[in-house]
Amino acid sequence: MNKEELTAKLKVIIKPYATNTDAYENLTENTDFINDLNINSANLVDIILDIEEAFDIVIDNTDMERMLDVKNSVEIIETKLAAK
Amino acid sequence: MIGNDVIDIIQSRYDSNWQRKGFIQKIFTSDEQLLINKALNPEIIVWLLWSMKEAAYKIYNRQTKIRAYIPQRLECSLNSQNDKYILGKVFCCGNIYYTKTSISNDYIHTIAVTNHDKLNTVIEIEKNYIIKDEHGIPFLTSSLSDLVQNVSISNHGRFEKVVALSNL
Question: In chain A, what residues touch B54 (CB-CB under 8 Å)?
Answer without folding.
Answer: 41
